[in-house]
Amino acid sequence: MRKTLMFTRLCFLINLATDNWICGFEEVRSGLTTDVYLERMMETLRKDGKADTHVWAEFSGDLPDGYEWGVFAGLNEVMGLLNGRNVDVWALPEGSVFRGEDVNGIEEPVMVISGPYSEFALLETAILGILSYNCGVATAAARVKVAAEGAPVFAFGIRRMHPALAAVSDRAAYIGGVDGFSGVGAGRRLGITPVGTMPHSFILIYGRQEDAWSAFDKYAPPDVPRTLLCDTLSDEKDEVIRAAKLLGAKLAAVRLDTPKSRRGDFEHIVREVRWELDRLGFKKVKIMVSGGLDEKSIRGLKKAGADMFGVGTSIAAARVIDFSMDLCQVGGKPVSKRGRFSGVKSVYRCTECLIDVVVGWEDSVGKCPKCGGIMKPAMIKVMESGKPLVNEDIQKIRTRSMQQTLKLGLNLDSN
Ligand SMILES: [Zn+2]
Known about the structure:
The chain has about 425 residues and is of the alpha/beta class.
């Protein structure tokens, strides 16, 4: 183990010398992306014979103000890190909603790890980072999707994040409920065809919109919808009419990515474009909008006539959700720092209204205090002695997230 660690560290140094700043999976898994205070702590605990103390650690998230729920994502990556370590893990199934606190104001764990501390102490930093980013993106995507009230939403934001996170970002957004994503990396991993239209540079290379659109129509695979970008060189309404005249019935959609400096009233531009398309008999042609959209702007644009939304920064670079890890039991004894609740806890969730009640590990909750519905344990055992017990399909995870977030809805006025 020590030799392997030294070898990985050597590779790490070589990587640094070649200006590769991307920390790979093996580096993360070996604990080389830890905060140094954990390394120093473990060194002391090892020398004092306490490194293998049996502990229970709980992970809970602190939701941003005004958020009533988050979407739990990133469990797959955490399991990848813990695979082969001598630990047991319980967690909410990926894609479940979670809250910072239960109905009684008790912090709600989303995941619990039990085992000798040395087995996972150096992974604390990495696990928190994985959960904070994944849950941040999945939650933002879910909020946008709920705000879109059923309209298709696509994640176009990997250019706003470090490329090392591209596949992570698209996967988390997909779990949150977007209908597709632009990234080829996540597409390859998930076996899902990525979604995209055409960049402005494509139009600029040809110099004339019709030439670029015709070339696209000629060479793009037949199953790629004919969605034409209509805002590069002239007025949106003018370009949309020209695109419709060029492709006729083949035109599936027009995309407006109007730059901020020209936007003025973007909703009104959408209304005008819809009006002209309808007037010319192109009622079936959809309007896709993109560029700086978020959960708040989508509603107005939808009302104005936009049918599809490409959302970038507000999903891929969503605010992270702060996660923390707390030891709640050490050597068989319940413990807690100030401000936390001691002992291992269990989360009970109402199968009807989805509210949560946190109780002691051995306790249970009979009826929902709000609706009288049935309460069931929300966390399941996902790993035993380092062996994963679950391996869920991405579609199942996404369906779970969408069912729960649509049921809970969104109060956009509260934040
Ligand atoms: Zn209930």
